[in-house]
Write a structure and sequence with these properties.
This protein has about 550 residues and is α/β, with parallel strands linked by helices. The protein has 3 domains: about 180 residues, ABC transporter type 1, transmembrane domain (ABC transporter transmembrane region fold), CATH 1.20.1560.10; about 120 residues; about 200 residues, 3-Layer(aba) Sandwich (Rossmann fold), CATH 3.40.50. Helix content is about 65%, strand content about 10%. The chain contains 19 helices and 9 strands. Strand 7, helix 19 and strand 8 form a beta-alpha-beta unit. The longest helix has about 50 residues. It starts with 5 loop residues before the first helix and ends with a strand.
Length: about 550
């Protein structure tokens, strides 16, 4: 299978949105080209006036028109860059979502949910910045610096030589300041995180704090974190305050040196630095314009560095091996459930060893055993969430691993101990967006679970938005039964679903289960001896 990366995903998105990609590049290049025009026109206009020529209104119109066009193109560049970045990140999140659904359950279980979420949010946002304020912006700024330098070299070779010395020094100074500011910002983030962590900690341990008289200790800890944050902010403000005056001083110094040299009277110096009044105005304008992109380059380099770390983490996520997806068939396995010499474990811990059992079609069986014996593991293996190390697991003679995803729900239904609500209506809770489960199927399942009358009393019936407090605990369990049987599966798995119910509610749920179990092969998990029915399978 072809390995997808951030590069391949974004390249494909750029090809898909080729006109947007082309428009973004053209806006950036046009903005750079047009930015060269106003100083040239202004210089030419001033030179004409200084020699006594009539005021050229058309040049004035060109000058102001070029300023307006520059502003429009700059706004267009920013807009297209933002839109381009959104398209790229949308494509990347789509690719990551596809990857997430194709990862084995064991792989997902081994990962921290927060780490996975961070890849979808923080890392992808960093990659978006790679486009909006990173690579493309840096390329545009580099073009701007080179083009302005080329014009200055043509107008004033001496100034070009001065800039060859000054600009690298300014770039190094800019980089130094930005590194120090970034370091201070990271220190501030750590301090703020520590401050935020202390609030819930104090609330959680408030009784212990009062009991042991630790109020002053907690205050000192809090003040220490605040002090770290203030120190970091002050450092950031210091570098921010220092940088702009230094740049302005360098700008003024370069202009002053060039002006003095141009008026020196030395023929050799004048050949390098001599210029007209209009050229001087244009050159001064260009000098101010060349410093801004140099400052931006430092920020863009930082953005690219931060984004590349996100790119590496996303590439690691996309590089994970996917589960094998069975080929699509119209066959829905029904019949005997059989475990044959199954061995399985989590990491180095073996849970099942040479484990075998058979539950015949239409038979009911209960998995019994101590906590940790592997009852839930049997369900996960039967659902295909994990693959056994050895042995085989079949339904109606068909290996579970070969049941297509589209048919799995029609083969196995599972009633879990806790109902997992999905966004949407009551109908959505039953169908789960499955196009093969019709509204009529959902209503039939609800009637079978004994929940149809309750749903009918809701404001919008089956179309009522499903919220947390819409049903009682017992009704949620009935809804779980309806969800499990909506696709008419041949096998029904019951995961200790009456464990937290009162006696009256338990009776209603058990009655619904008896109706739902008719004609189906049923496997249940129960820790209570009295609840064990049918074939008892000991683990």
């Amino acid at each position: 299978m072809k390995r997808n990366t951030v590069f391949t995903a974004t390249l494909q998105a750029a090809k898909t949105h080729r006109w947007l990609s082309l428009g973004t590049a053209l806006c950036a290049l046009s903005s750079v080209a047009v930015s060269l025009l106003p100083p040239l026109v202004l210089g030419h206009l001033i030179d004409r006036l200084t020699v006594g020529l009539p005021f050229p209104f058309y040049l004035a119109l060109v000058y102001f028109g070029s300023l307006v066009l520059e502003g429009v193109l700059t706004a267009a560049q920013e807009t297209t860059l933002e839109l381009f970045g959104q398209k790229m990140t949308h494509a990347l999140r789509t690719e990551m979502s596809k990857k997430l659904t194709h990862l084995p359950a064991a792989t997902l279980a081994a990962q921290e949910p927060g780490a996975v979420a961070a890849r979808f949010n923080g890392d992808v946002d960093a990659v978006e910045a790679l486009f909006t304020s990173g690579v493309i912006s840096m390329a545009a700024d580099c073009c701007r610096i080179v083009s302005i330098f080329a014009v200055i070299l043509r107008k004033n070779p001496g100034l070009a030589l001065v800039l060859l010395v000054v600009l690298p020094l300014l770039a190094a100074f800019t980089r130094y300041v930005q590194k120090r500011m970034l370091s201070a910002q990271l220190e501030n983030r750590k301090a703020v995180a520590a401050i935020s962590a202390q609030v819930p900690e104090a609330l959680h341990n408030i009784r212990t704090i009062h009991l042991l008289g630790l109020e002053n200790y907690m205050e000192r800890r809090y003040d220490k974190c605040i002090g770290r944050s203030y120190a970091a902010v002050e450092k950031t403000n210091f570098f921010d305050a220092v940088y702009s005056p230094v740049v302005l001083t360098i700008n003024a110094g370069v202009v002053g040196v060039v002006m003095l040299l141009s008026a020196s009277g030395s023929p050799a110096v004048i050949r390098l630095f001599g210029m007209s009044v209009g050229t001087a105005v244009a050159v001064i304008n260009y000098i101010s314009r060349i410093f801004a992109p140099i400052e931006s380059l430092g920020m863009e380099i930082q953005t690219i560095q931060a984004a590349m770390a996100g790119v590496r983490r996303i590439d690691e996520f996309l590089a994970q091996p996917e589960r094998e997806i069975p080929a699509e068939t119209d066959v829905v396995p029904r019949g005997d459930v059989e475990f044959s010499h199954v061995t399985f474990g989590y990491d180095a811990q073996e849970i099942l060893s040479d484990f075998s059992f058979t539950v015949q079609a239409g038979q009911q069986a209960t998995l019994a055993g101590r906590t940790g014996a592997g009852k839930s593991t049997v369900f996960r293996l039967l659902l295909g969430l994990y693959q056994p190390g050895s042995g085989s697991i079949t339904i109606g003679g068909v290996p579970v691993s070969q049941i297509p995803d589209s048919q799995k729900r029609r083969s196995i239904g599972c009633v879990e101990q806790h109902f997992s609500r999905v966004p949407g209506s009551v109908l959505d809770q039953i169908t789960l967006g499955d196009p093969l489960v019709s509204r009529e199927d959902a209503q039939k399942a609800a009637r079978l679970a004994g929940l149809d009358e309750v749903i009918a009393l809701l404001p919008q019936g089956y179309d009522t938005p499903c919220t947390e407090g819409l049903f009682s605990q017992g009704q949620w369990q009935l809804l779980s039964i309806a969800r499990a049987v909506a696709a008419d599966p041949g096998v029904l798995l019951l995961d200790e679903i009456t464990a937290n119910l009162d006696a009256r509610t338990e009776e209603r749920v058990l009655e619904a289960l008896r109706r739902a179990s008719t004609g189906r092969t049923v496997l249940s998990i129960s820790h209570r001896t009295g609840a064990q029915t049918g074939l008892i399978i000991h683990l």
